[in-house]
Specification:
203 residues; alpha/beta; TIM Barrel; 4-stranded parallel beta sheet; 36% helix; 7% strand; globular
Length: 203
C-alpha cells in the first residue's frame, strides 16, 4: 500500500503551524528530546529558535531553555499570525511594545540584519535603528542574521572589486554590526566573525 503524500504550499511547509495543522505537532517531540538530554533547563547551552513567535511561546511552557524569536523583513508577517488572523507585522514586533510581548516568553531575538542597520537605495548601510537598545532594555539578547564574506552579500560600501563571489571587506562590515552592541551574529563564515569580534574587543 502506497504511503499518503503530504502536500504543502511553499510558504507553509517550513512552518510549525503547518505541521500542527496536519496532526504532526513538533514542539512536544522537541521538548521530550531536550528533557532526555538535559537540555531543557534555563541555563542550558542551547537556543530553540523559530520564525513563529507563538511557537516559542508554547514551547516556553514545556521547557525552560532559552528561546529566540527570529524576525524577517519589517513588512513581513509571521505565518502563525497569518493563520490566526493577527494583523501584526515584524515592524510591530520590533517596537518597544512588541519587544515587551516577546520578552514574556523568549530570551532573545534573531532579526534580519536590515532591522539593525537598513541599507539605502544604493545598497550602502544607512542609519542604525534603535532595535538593539530597545531589545536590551527588555533584557533580550540580539543575534541578527546572516553575515557572509562574499561581495554579493555585503553592503555596497564594503565590497571590493567587481567579482560578486570574491571576498569583500567582511571585517569592516562585521565591525559596524558589532559596534551596535549585538550579542552575537549568524554567519556562514564563523571564523571571520570570531576574528572580527576578537579584534574589536582587543582594541
Amino acid at each position: 500500500m502506497r504511503a499518503p503524500r503530504l502536500a504543502a504550499r511553499r510558504d507553509q511547509a517550513p512552518h510549525l503551524t503547518y505541521f500542527r495543522g496536519i496532526g504532526l505537532a513538533l514542539k512536544p517531540r522537541l521538548a521530550k528530546l531536550l528533557r532526555a538530554y538535559g537540555r531543557h533547563r534555563h541555563d542550558s547551552p542551547n537556543f530553540v529558535q523559530s520564525f513563529e513567535p507563538t511557537s516559542i511561546e508554547r514551547l516556553s511552557k514545556l521547557v525552560s531553555c532559552p528561546g529566540v524569536v527570529l524576525l524577517s523583513s519589517a513588512s513581513s508577517r509571521p505565518w502563525d499570525f497569518v493563520k490566526a488572523g493577527d494583523p501584526r507585522t515584524v515592524a510591530d514586533l520590533v517596537t518597544p511594545k512588541g519587544l515587551d510581548w516577546i520578552a514574556r516568553f523568549a530570551r532573545g531575538i534573531g532579526p534580519d540584519l536590515s532591522l539593525v542597520i537598513p541599507r539605502d537605495k544604493s545598497g550602502k548601510l544607512g542609519t542604525p535603528t534603535r532595535l538593539v537598545r530597545d531589545a536590551h532594555a527588555k533584557k533580550l539578547l540580539v543575534h541578527p542574521y546572516t553575515m557572509r564574506n562574499e561581495n554579493s552579500f555585503l553592503p555596497l560600501d564594503f565590497r571590493k572589486g567587481t567579482d560578486p563571489a570574491a571576498y569583500g571587506d567582511a571585517f569592516g562590515a562585521f565591525k559596524v554590526y558589532f559596534e551596535q552592541g549585538i550579542d552575537g551574529i549568524f554567519s556562514d563564515n564563523p571564523d571571520t566573525a570570531l576574528l572580527a569580534r576578537a579584534d574589536l574587543v582587543g582594541k
